[in-house]
Write a structure and sequence with these properties.
Length: 272
């Protein structure tokens, strides 16, 4: 069994506003091997890190820009989006936090943890794969792109395949589903990981994914009992809002394994 990765969903998003720099820093402090973020494109073509297609839930856009017909990320410029407060909705301690650009996140994470980068709704942002390539390249994230540093995923599997053909050196993941068995087998030659909702995971699915030489990272699990069940099924990582909790669960499993192996060794020694 390889190392089971701690993957912080939107950063340490149980303890800091999702997809912000404090959530990302905290995720690293809490032992994340990877930080998962969501990427969208602004009206003027900049890549920003935000989950929803619209700005209302996680910013004060309604206060700053009342009366707009729509509040889509894709309908606002970077300057407008940067003027928003993306922290107060979560708590006063985070007042004034900004929606980060992808560039900022790459700089904040470099050399500290891997990045699981989800491209949201790529179908509504034609050319976003090439934009992504430019930003990753300018930030030196494409050099020796090993699987431990960067994985690009999307629920749009056609996009994932296109992205793979554009940048075959970057590991890619199929998010959601899971794909039917034949599609999993077909992805074996080009995908790095299959990332389904945790309730869809079975030991059989894990075996099938492993049979294709891929890894399986289920989302989003904050319950320690479910974390343990998934670990027992053989998953390779867990996507969680609580990376510190998952790190604790993994340390507990490792301790139990060690004690159990120690006992076995003592029994075999006594019977010699
Ligand atoms: O990485 C898995 C997860 O992020 C998918 O769901 O909606 O949180 O982006 P969502
Ligand atoms: Ca996501």
């Amino acid at each position: 069994m390889g190392k089971i990765h701690v993957i912080a969903h939107r950063g340490a998003s149980a303890d800091a506003p999702e997809n912000t720099l404090p959530a990302i820093d905290l995720a690293v402090d809490h032992g994340a091997d990877f930080v998962e973020i969501d990427v969208r494109r602004t009206l003027d073509g900049e890549l920003v890190v935000i989950h929803d297609s619209t700005l209302q839930r996680t910013t004060d856009v309604l206060r700053l820009y009342p009366g707009r017909a729509r509040y889509d990320v894709a309908g606002f410029t970077l300057a407008e989006i940067r003027s928003l407060d993306a922290g107060s909705w979560f708590g006063p301690a985070f007042a004034g936090e900004r929606v980060p650009t992808l560039r900022e996140v790459l700089a904040a994470l470099a050399g500290r943890a891997g990045l699981l980068l989800e491209v949201k709704d790529p179908g509504s942002a034609p050319g976003i794969a090439a934009d992504l390539r430019s930003v990753l390249d300018a930030a030196d994230w494409l050099e020796d792109a090993p699987a431990g540093r960067l994985v690009v995923q999307s629920a749009d599997w056609t996009f994932v395949k296109e992205f793979h053909f554009l940048l075959p050196e970057v590991p890619v993941g199929l998010l959601g589903g899971p794909p039917p068995p034949q599609e999993i087998d077909g992805a074996a030659g080009w995908a790095y990981c299959i990332n389904p909702k945790n309730t869809k995971v079975t030991a059989g699915l894990v075996r099938r994914v492993h049979g294709g030489g891929m890894v399986l990272w289920p989302y989003t699990v904050d319950n320690p009992r479910r974390m343990r069940e998934l670990i027992a099924m053989g998953v390779d990582g867990v996507i969680t809002n609580r990376p510190a909790l998952l790190a604790e669960v993994l340390a507990g499993s490792a301790r139990r394994r060690f004690t159990w192996l120690g006992r076995l060794w003592q029994i075999s020694k006594a019977s010699r």
